[in-house]
Design goal:
α8 links the parallel β5 and β6. The protein is an alpha/beta fold. Bound molecules: pyridoxal-5'-phosphate.
Length: 420
């Protein structure tokens, strides 16, 4: 399994290989960003051109009635299929950070759970800031559970905290640094048993692994659509709320798109009785237009097939890392068990940033490899089965060996950029 032949054979036999043609690619470039921005689906570009030239350009304001007002619902119903939800339990729009703020505040005001807020040290910084901000504004107690390692959660500790301090917790299903995946159903059941709720952030999980909200008893989730969903830079986020909670939660940001009938221009706020009560302002139509092609491709390929390929590719990549990179100073940071990880594989090295720069430099060996760097010493490789090839993973490992064994990375500075 640890050779180039294996990669070539797997790429030839790959049942999803034709999906690669649905994306834009740059020659001599391997895209393993893990995964802050998915690639551009060609159909997204086509849809955008139509929205700009035909809808914005020609039908102008009447496009709201003909095309745009329904577009968020149209997209939401596709996301609902992917997550096994009812389409009236999910809304698309705003950013993950806004969605999290809305729903945590709404939960606090609903008094359905005790007002203790909790998260852990693997949490994405924006989520942490949102929770801390709310805790501070409302003078609430908040716990951030700290683990001895930054690459996985200690479930015993997490469960104990939920049991000892019931309340509203927020966790990222797949951790952004290491790719560690929490046991979704087990933790939801535990939370329920201990009068708590977990608000899940699916940003690094959606589009990469199978998520069945009904089967896993998930009640609330948020997430972004620009990673494995290939929705485009800054594409709108989603918010899922289980139907039994919708009417109990009140949107703290009372904009007109959360109104029952915004176009009556009433001076009284009368909230929508549906998930649309979480609407705020005018939907970003061009961004919504861009995200449809990505979700369509995932539904067409099937999330189970995507997940199977991700497991197989990650296993191959991890076995190459173990055999060829651990001996030269790298550490594997992603769990070995497929159901304990998402679809990115992280390694660490004391010189991670200079090594990343050498990977990005096409002049090194004629190919540019794009991972992403997470300070202080993580290199993250996103495996997106719709376009990642096995041979890309082989080539990446060979490039890393070259960069380290030839000391090439020493030609690059240690100064870190703003966006990595
Ligand atoms: C896990 C996670 N949560 C939240 C965010 C923030 O999302 P947004 O910029 O849409 O608010 C990100 C962004 O990358 C993320 O990875």
């Amino acid at each position: 399994m640890n050779d180039k032949q294996y990669a070539l054979k797997k790429d030839t036999e790959d049942p999803l290989k034709f999906f690669r043609n649905a994306f834009y690619h740059t020659p001599n470039e391997i895209y393993l960003d893990g995964n802050s921005l998915g690639k551009l689906p060609l159909k997204a570009k086509e849809n955008l051109v139509t929205a700009v030239t035909e809808e914005w350009g020609k039908t102008l304001i009447s496009s709201w009635n003909f095309h745009w007002l329904d577009r968020p619902n149209q997209i939401a119903s596709k996301y609902a299929r992917l997550l096994n939800l009812n389409s009236d339990e999910i809304i698309i729009g705003e950013s993950t950070s806004i969605r999290l703020y809305q729903v945590i505040y709404a939960l606090l005001q609903s008094k359905q759970f005790s007002n203790h807020l909790g998260t852990d040290s693997l949490q994405f910084p924006s989520d942490l800031y949102i929770l801390e901000g709310i805790a501070k504004n409302e003078s609430l107690e908040m716990s951030v559970i700290s683990y001895s390692q930054e690459n996985h959660a200690e479930l015993k500790l997490l469960k104990k905290r939920i049991k000892d301090k019931p309340g509203i917790y927020c966790l990222s299903l797949v951790s952004y640094k290491s790719g560690y995946r929490y046991p979704l159903k087990l933790l939801n059941q535990w939370a329920l048993k201990h009068n708590s709720i977990i608000v899940w952030d699916f940003s690094h999980a959606i589009g990469a692994i199978t998520i069945d909200c009904k089967e896993t008893k998930t009640l609330i989730a948020v997430g972004c659509t620009y990673k494995y969903m290939n929705g485009g830079p800054g594409s709108p986020a989603f918010l899922y709320v289980h139907k039994k909670l919708i009417s109990l939660l009140s949107n703290p940001i009372k904009g007109w798109f959360g109104h029952r009938s915004p176009f009556t221009f009433s001076s009284q706020f009368n909230p929508s009785q549906t998930i649309e009560r979480f609407g705020v302002g005018t939907p970003s139509i061009l961004s919504l237009t861009a995200i449809e092609a990505g979700v369509d491709l995932i539904l067409e390929a099937g999330i189970k097939a995507i997940e199977q390929k991700s497991i197989s590719q990650s296993n191959y990549f991890i076995s190459l890392i173990e055999a060829q990179l651990l001996p030269i100073g790298f550490t594997l940071e992603t769990p070995l068990h497929p159901y304990e990880r998402g679809s990115h594989v992280s390694i660490s090295h004391k010189d991670a940033w200079p090594i990343c720069q050498a990977l990005l430099d096409e002049k090194v060996r004629g190919v540019k490899i794009i991972p992403d760097f997470r300070p202080p010493h993580f290199i993250r490789f996103g495996i997106t089965p719709l376009y990642t090839q096995y041979i890309d993973l082989w080539d990446t490992v060979q490039q890393l060996i070259f960069i380290v064994s030839s000391n090439t990375y020493k030609n690059y500075s240690d100064d870190q950029p703003v966006v990595t």
